[in-house]
Amino acid sequence: MSENRYWKSVEERDSSLPRAGRSESEAPVALPIDRRGFLKASGFTVAGTLLVGCSRKPVEKAIPYLVQPEEIVPGRATWYASTCGGCAAGCGALVKCRDGRPIKLEGNRDHPFSQGGLCAVGQASLLGLYDSQRFSGPQLAGRQSGWDEVDQAVTGRIAEVTASKGRVRLLTDTVTSPTEQRLIDRFLRQFSDAKHVVYDPLSSSAILDAHQTTHGLRVLPRYRFGRADVIVSFGADFLGTWISPVEFTTDYRSGRNLDGDSPRLSFHAQLESRMSLTGSNADLRVILDPAEEGLALGRLAEKVAELAGTAYPGFAGTSSSVLEEATLDDLAERLWQARGRSLVVSASQSSRQQVLVNYLNQLLGAYGATIDLERPSMQRQGNDIALAELADELARGSVDLLLIQGVNPVYDLPLPGLAKAVEEAPFVVSFAASLDETAARADAICPEPHFLEAWGDCEAVAGVVSIAQPAIRPLRDTRSMMESLSVWLGEPKSALDLIQECWLEEILPRTSALSFRSFWDHTVRDGSALIAAEALEVSPFVISAVEPLGSVGQDEHFTLELYPTIGLLDGRHAHNPWLQELPDPVTKVTWDNYASLSPVAAADLGVGESDVVRLEVPGEQSFELPVYVQPGQHDRVVAVALGYGRLGTDRFHTAGPKWLQSKPTVDAGATVGVNAAPWTTLGKEGRGYRRSGVKVIPTGRTYDLASTQTYHFLSVPEKLAPTDGQDRPIIQEAVLEEYLEDRSAGAPHLHHFESDLWGEHEFDVHHWAMAIDLSACTGCAACVVSCQAENNVPVVGKDEVERRREMHWIRIDRYYRGDPTAPDTVHQPMMCHHCDNAPCETVCPVIATLHSSEGLNMQIYNRCVGTRYCANNCPYKVRRFNWFDYAHDDKLENLMLNPDVTVRDRGVMEKCSLCVQRIQEGKIVAISEGREVADGEIQTACQQSCPAQAIVFGDLVDPESRVSKIFGDPRHYVIFEELNVRPSVGYLRLVRNRPAITAGHVTEEQEDSHHG
Amino acid sequence: MARTAWPLREPLIAGDKTPAQVTIDISRPLEGRATPLWWAAFLVSLTTLFVGMVAVSYQIKTGIGTWGLNRTIGWSFDITNFVFWVGIGHAGTLISAILFLLRQRWRTSVNRAAEAMTLFAVMCAGIFPIIHMGRPWLAFWVLPYPNGRGPLWVNFRSPLLWDVFAISTYFIISAVFWYVGLIPDLATLRDRTKPGLRQRLFSFFSLGWNGALSVWNRYETVYLILAAALATPLVLSVHSIVSFDFATSVLPGWHTTIFPPYFVGGAIFSGMSMVLTLMIIARKTMRLEDYLTIRHIDTMTKLVLATSWMVAIAYATEFFVALYSGNELERFVFLNRAMGPMAWSYWIMVCCNVLVPQIFWFRRMRRALPVVFVATILINVGMWFERFVIITTSLHRDFLPSSWASYTPTLIELATLAGSFGLFFTCFLLFCRFLPMIAMAEIKGVLNAHLKPAHGLEVAEVEVEAETEPIAARSVVGGLEEVQT
Q1: How many Cβ atoms sit within 10 Å of the Cβ of residue B189?
Q2: Closest chain B CA to residue A827
Q3: Interface of B with A in 397-436 (CB under 8 A)
Q4: What predicted TM-score, i.e. pTM, was given to this entire model?
Q5: Which of A272, A383, A579, B162 could anchor a disulfide with A235, C-beta 3.0 to 4.6 Å?
Q6: Where residue A314 falls among pLDDT bands split at 50, 70, 90?
């Protein structure tokens, strides 16, 4: 080779010739390495490089505190008592903070009325704190601004209005805060024409109006379901969405307690036209034609009056065509027999009907017994008549300064001209925390903080005062309304000062406390205090107000029922993905609203699920919605949920994984669901949520709904039933009569396992177990969201739910039983059963799921390779697989991840752990205090949140624990006992308070014949 | 022609072949240029394989969510494909081992291709358990290798682990069996090939074969041991163990003791059908009509008919047991299979697996190639659906009605299924092109020509052949056996 090369110098020529001696001597440093050494070194290097390359995640550095803040111990949570701001009900909440960040809300057990329960909305409202779309600061004329400029603009406007004696209107929802009310009063006092208009998007105005008529006092009484032995509800969804569901559920549950020797089970009849959560729990459910609601009430009143021996004022209405006379007689009889212990409630927005309800309750002696007027509820104060007046004023353009807090009238009022009126109003101030339909048209936006960021107070029920305290430094530049008002009054004060001032002057005198300081400190620590209620002047019942009601008449068209859903309520939580993905407790549909039709109505129209129909009222905007076929609904009713179609919900366009065949949760620029609020009514009668004369017209298009449950019955389809109408023994139930005779009534038949291939597991220290009382569970789904928050369960988006891949660790199975048009409903919470003979454990090839020495079925995410065999082999189908890398890329939302729970990677299986992190924490605390874990000390997230206290968790090794006793209860059963998987999660049989004959349950003989 | 010489029985090899002619015929496709038909088929297969690879890469990158599975149906196409391909892979060993032991001499024409088919099918099958994992990059965790993670070991109670052993053993034994069978032929090819890479490869892999009697002796002993001791039990074990994936679960429709024989029967059924499909294509395209004769096809269709009855009886037994057991969940699963929302798949299965093979009762149908071709394809469609029915319909409506769900495959799954066929045919076409599709050495043992006066024409070549293949004695004996039996 080198022969043909030209060389530049002798050196080059020489160096190109191999000369052993020379190269050796001239090598700068001979490497002290031999061949073997080199191989070792290179092998090590290659292996090392490979190992380093093996780490899948970039290393993140944790920086310790330079100065350790007081009270914060890394790894230990701090708890603050507060008040939930999810709705106006004002339940007590405990805020769990880790490293200065609220990561979980729990019910406050010391709270006088919520008693430890917290609903799904309350649980999810935590996520609202970390909503990245909240206003980062005040806005002026649609532009980011500073507080000084905004204050200048507002005070300037105030000065103008004061000078010109202009009209000032403050529009809010129910104000339960005494301090806020005080500030509002002081603020409005400076104007010559100022009015505070209160309206509730979910109005109960008619109840207040009726009490004005009958008792001379515009007041919402406090219903005491727990004191009632007979409850008759006309369409009031008091366990779901009506006024104060957590309080009512807790109370209702206390009247339905089968534990102990003297079980008590109130009788609950629900007369309603659509299937509500409350109706699904009723002992007797009557499907009522909405047109005949007044008539039915009147007939019932007449019958009760007859029993009471008084004359029913006015003449008896015509005979009800739908309600059987016998049913009404039975109800009247039951109510009368339990007088003083019975209660009639109605959600009707007709004050005439509410007057009748009051009359009934008066006859039954409910006032002072099951209805509390001394400590009335403040949870609904709205006055729809005043709202209608304001609407007129706005339409005329005669409001000079409009302030709007807590409500979104442009969205939820049926006034097409309102948007324009608000836009054209001279000056509109909004206190909205994030952009909504109304704030978008306001001149100035003074965003309020999230309730977890600020001081607040609340008197939701007269005499029950509670404190909301900040649990985190405000994430945004916000100011609560009372602070803003104080600034504009010229005496700026912090919310804390304002509240203390108010409490010193107004609350303290109602207590027997000697020192304000100690009263204040106690209240802040406990979260609430019970003080004297202000005395109310109740006038004697005005019997003359009662007038009989007839049928409002029917036509061949449908009646539209507008109702709130358990998650979104009036739409205020529409930006909360947890609530959007929370299956409706009855329909199990997520991410959409729909037109519910009864099976008969759907068949008549020739439509089925997912067919789009158009709802039309002549001369009004029509809506197109997909159909949902709802058994148990009246055939002439179409029900549509409120709260959907909110501005900005297209943010969920990106919710869920993106891949080749994925569909967005919502189209870009569209909204989640359709806003049905324009079809509510607002007139002289107040707000109405019902429209008659609605035409339902099939469009021929389809729109898929994402539902977490698509087969709804306990019995398998008839043509596939091995024996006629086969019910699976998943839900066992009995009626009260049978239960009182035989505590094990309803058990299908007993299985005995004489021998077992597997050895018994031995549990020496603990054996964790759970029991769920199906008689107590209402299906309200609080547990679902609580679990989601506790266990970092991701939101997967509509498309994934539609593909049946929702990730909830606890779900509530809802089954229908019996008549497909008027079925019985049952709710069954379902989570990992932690079987002692777990089928999932034997099949995993890599032992990624195994049994702990404490009876827990553990899932080891690190070890899981994702064969999904465990899920296939799970009889309860509770295992959840990470089909994708579910989004955890919202940095702000990630602040609320529970640091005690691993965020799962793609490709691994996950499931309920019975909150193993809480068990560990409880054990560590007990050990550090040198004692045993006390029964009830460790609570799972679902159990803690349950307003009905349907879930009991504990240790089976301790024979005295509640769960041990429940496992020995004859009412206790496990699902599919014959599989011998030995679940550690059991159920207490459902007991319904109804005569044995009408119960649609299978008698034992039939059951036996099923089993051959 | 041959019929006159052997009136009792049709000859196994038609066309009065001499051993030399056999070598020439069978080596022809390897030595000439590839035909346009081969290229077309190869390109189509390669493209399909590529599509499948893209689909699998996408799925591994994005997640199993790109399949149509859900929380109720954790397996569907993936494991269906797996069991399907394992089933296809059954015919090879059956033909090589069991038929060898049973001295079914007709097997010599098909065993090589069937064994190759087995290997490729098992390769296709092996892909699915790996890619069906949520984290396939950790698939090696299913191997019990010493590790530094404390006492962390695999779960020997899990049927999936048994699968790992069963399939890998099966693959290794099949590969060895196939390779050992190839050695004499490789030597033949070595001798026929011009010097170059190809010859060196043949030379290396023929392990210095010289055709000596002692070599033949050892060779046949090894072959017998492989067949009798190793491969034969595997024919029964592999699919039995695959069936344990289902049989040991608690799921109604899976949890049944009939599965091992049922699966083995079904596997032979589908494997035979696949062999037939491939043979019909091969004899046409590679001009091997003389070697893969109508008689072969006739014999194999009889086997197909027999195994179709095995599966039919299994189907019926399942229903009977469900009825007789009194287990409502079990009964429901079977009623749901036949009448539920996925009943169409059940009836495809029944039509293809039970009804279609009944045409093979008729000799004319057994010998009508288009009929056999279409029928065998239908049978494999049916057998694919059998696994789909077992897996998917049992899962989609199991214990709790609240969890009942339905299943639709995604494009990715369809592409992956197609890709597995792409891989199979790509491998098979390459095999046809580079290795003798028919076992030359063995086929010469069943030639009729040896019992006839040799034609002077080809003496020279016969002598050349004789160096490598002292088959005359064997074939005479073999031929006589054939006559006697």
Answers
A1: 26
A2: B402
A3: 397-406, 410-412
A4: 0.87
A5: A272
A6: low
